[in-house]
């Protein structure tokens, strides 16, 4: 298996956690999205039509979109399962994962921040306020979901699921950007516990071959 | 079953299509997101912790996030199946669905456009350019995915999947906002075919009880 990844991309981070939790070895193919390597004709034509990281190659299959990749891994390599089979547990895990993957991450990712800066010419303070606003909105919803439905040491129970796989990179991003996260008590407790897990630690940005400070 | 929905919300529209395709009757509970009904304490505490539409109630389960809702419906009411079981077909469907649900819709939804307008004080022209930019970026990726992997009259084959359920509302939005969509030939062909399907037509904004022009 090959994973096209950027160390600091939180969607790549999600897939790295899933691969590591499942004990699946992979070649790490670094794509520097800061310098636009994901936009080259070569990459778009042959790897990711979405012009994005991550992208997974598994035999004849080449697929992009982190949640689609993790669902694929969960179907083909089900141990340990990250998306529960029970309909209600599954709904809870996907609800939280999508609250992060749809409602938080896309609005604060690199290309949007660059548009704000380069096209709309916002000030650094306005850009920072934007980032914090969507973290606050989105994490408030995530925290409510965890308080209502969460249990155990992970988001939902005593083993990691896709919800944890989505949560940890998002919180890591928010902390890196200096957001005040203490108020999200349950989310931060899961983050502290999960970050110390070997698979999560191994998948962290600083442990990747393309890491730069 | 009850569905909390707003006629013009494309994520509500997705769930309405799924419910109608599966022939599942439901009570339509209108939530006006333009006037902030999704932000009332009552709604957030008792219906959607994410303060968003859609939200589904099915017996004891209350769940938000359109893709989580549709996955739940697909597990519990599998006919007709919208997310294929075959791992590769499934990956293709989820890849395209997430390319819309994560990479296009969230950046152009009401709350983001309002932030641009009310907080960043962008001009109407800048807001329109923003909208068109993300439609163009996102639909370029969607079109590439369809050209590479699409086949049949629907996105992937001869029956509707989650990919069509995500695509039709997104294109309807883009057309309503006056985006130039002709260049996305394959996507527009699927849209034309799918929009005429009774379940898609019945789920359209204009057919909803809370529709206003």
TrEMBL record, chains A, B:
It comes from Ralstonia flatus. It is an enzyme of class 5 (isomerase). This is Maleylpyruvate isomerase. PANTHER family: MALEYLACETOACETATE ISOMERASE. It comes from the Bacteria. One of its GO terms (molecular function) is maleylpyruvate isomerase activity. Pfam families: GST_N_3 (PF13417). Belongs to the GST superfamily. Zeta family. Residues 86-213 form the GST C-terminal domain. Residues 1-81 form the GST N-terminal domain. Its EC number is 5.2.1.4. Keywords: Isomerase. PROSITE patterns: GST_CTER (PS50405), GST_NTER (PS50404).
């Amino acid at each position: 298996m090959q994973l096209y990844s950027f160390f600091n991309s939180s969607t790549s981070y999600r897939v790295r956690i899933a691969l590591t939790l499942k004990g699946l070895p992979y070649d790490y193919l670094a794509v520097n999205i800061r310098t636009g390597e994901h936009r080259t004709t070569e990459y778009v034509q042959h790897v990711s039509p979405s012009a994005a990281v991550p992208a997974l190659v598994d035999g004849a299959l080449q697929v992009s979109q982190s949640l689609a990749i993790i669902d694929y891994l969960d179907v083909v390599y089900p141990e340990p399962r990250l998306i529960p089979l029970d309909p209600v547990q599954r709904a809870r895990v996907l609800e939280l994962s999508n609250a992060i993957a749809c409602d938080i991450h896309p609005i604060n990712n690199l290309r949007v921040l660059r548009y704000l800066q380069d096209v709309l010419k916002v000030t650094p303070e306005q850009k920072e306020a934007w980032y914090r606003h969507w973290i606050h909105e989105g994490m408030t919803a995530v925290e409510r979901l965890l308080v209502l439905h969460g249990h155990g040491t992970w988001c939902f129970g005593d083993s990691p699921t896709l919800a944890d796989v989505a949560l940890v990179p998002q919180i890591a991003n928010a902390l890196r950007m200096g957001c005040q996260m203490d108020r999200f008590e349950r989310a931060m407790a899961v983050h502290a516990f999960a970050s110390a897990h070997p698979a999560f630690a191994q998948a962290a940005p600083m442990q990747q071959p393309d890491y730069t400070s």
